[in-house]
TrEMBL record:
InterPro entries referenced in this protein's UniProt entry, alphabetically: Glyco_transf_N
Lineage, broadest ranks: Eukaryota, Viridiplantae, Streptophyta, Embryophyta, Tracheophyta
Protein family per UniProt: Belongs to the UDP-glycosyltransferase family.
GO function term, MF aspect, one: UDP-glycosyltransferase activity
Any GO BP: carbohydrate derivative metabolic process
Organism annotation: Rhynchospora pubera
Protein name: Glycosyltransferase
Superkingdom classification of source: Eukaryota
Glycosyltransferase N-terminal domain ranges (all copies): 1-228
Pfam families named among the record's database cross-references: Glyco_transf_N
Length: 316
């Protein structure tokens, strides 16, 4: 496992590592030591003992500038982390050393790399007993846009009454350029793609992705959601936050000014929690949650595809 050094990426690959480890696979997780500790400390839904089954590799941290966060930035992006993102590729020699070491003692090694660390796939391609898989942690509909297939994606979104969301104010030009660079580099150097989504949610987009030239002939596995769908505390009980939500009344006119800051947010909450039309929304949301949990449960579509991936990479 080679994650991108940002929490949302570290966390998802750690969940995947634990899922694979629970099926008896030897899983190695390579990242900077502070990020490994960060991912471990923020893990939810797994007993602490599950982490003992993983092999963690602390990669040396290269030298890079570390500017402070800019609280006055006009863009909702952690600009101060860009030097870290740029420096992450400097660990390639250490990734190469780890892969060669594992290759020498294994029948097959499987490299699962975050889309934004595609250099790991290039190194895996040099080994005779290695194959690599790209891990996709953003929605496939968004991935298609990043890959330049916004035309057919827009048509499919429009058929569901949706539009392509704008990235204005979300990411910087530097990050976008880095992202596109990794998308291009990983083009033909990996065997398939693992997606933290399920076919119930994005089945049409997954099928559209499989039809694109860059993905024809590659294997696709929709294996999400990877995180446990029923968060629990270490003692096996449901998380306190869920118990607190269960105790809240479904309708409250008394506290909305205390917790709502904008008129649009207030109106949206009213539609769901107060107005009669909210009952239909809540029923749809409840059904959606049930279907997603079913996908991840034994015999569900994501569970079947995860087992299919395991069977494929452990084939003789």
């Amino acid at each position: 496992m080679v994650p991108f050094p940002a929490q949302g990426h570290l966390n998802q690959l750690l969940h995947l590592a634990l899922n694979l480890s629970s099926h008896g696979l030897a899983v190695h997780y390579a990242a900077f030591a502070p990020h490994i500790q960060q991912a471990k400390s923020r893990l939810q839904g797994w007993p602490d003992s599950a982490l003992d089954n993983l092999h963690f590799h602390n990669l040396p941290i290269p030298s890079f500038s570390c500017p402070p966060p800019d609280p006055n930035s006009t863009i909702s992006f952690p600009l101060h982390l860009q030097p870290l993102f740029d420096a992450s590729e400097l660990v390639l020699p250490h990734i190469a050393s780890l892969l060669h070491s594992l290759s020498a003692t294994s029948r097959r090694i499987v490299v699962i790399f975050d889309r934004f660390v595609s250099f790991a796939a290039r190194e895996a391609a040099t080994l005779p007993n290695a194959e690599s898989y790209c891990f996709q942690c953003v929605p496939i509909s968004q991935d298609l846009v990043f890959l330049g297939h916004d035309g057919p994606t827009a048509d499919l979104l429009q058929s569901h009454g949706l539009t392509i969301p704008s990235l204005d104010g979300c990411i910087t030009e530097d990050f976008f350029a880095m992202m596109i660079g990794h998308y291009k580099m990983s083009g033909l150097e990996y065997s398939g793609i693992l997606m933290n989504t399920c076919r119930f949610i994005e089945g049409e987009f997954i099928d559209l992705l499989a039809q694109q030239p860059d993905f024809i002939g590659k294997r696709h596995f929709a294996i999400g959601p990877l995180n446990p769908t029923t968060p629990v505390r270490a003692n096996g009980q449901r998380h306190l936050s869920l118990e607190w939500l269960d105790d809240q009344p479904s309708r409250d006119w008394d506290r909305q000014n205390e917790i709502l800051l904008a008129g649009e947010i207030e109106e949206a909450i009213k539609r769901v929690m107060v107005y009669d039309s909210g009952d239909e929304i809540k029923q749809r949301t409840k059904k959606l949650g049930e279907d997603v949990m079913q996908a991840a449960a034994d015999g569900g579509s994501s569970n079947i595809e995860l087992l299919g991936f395991i069977a494929h990479v452990t084939r003789r």
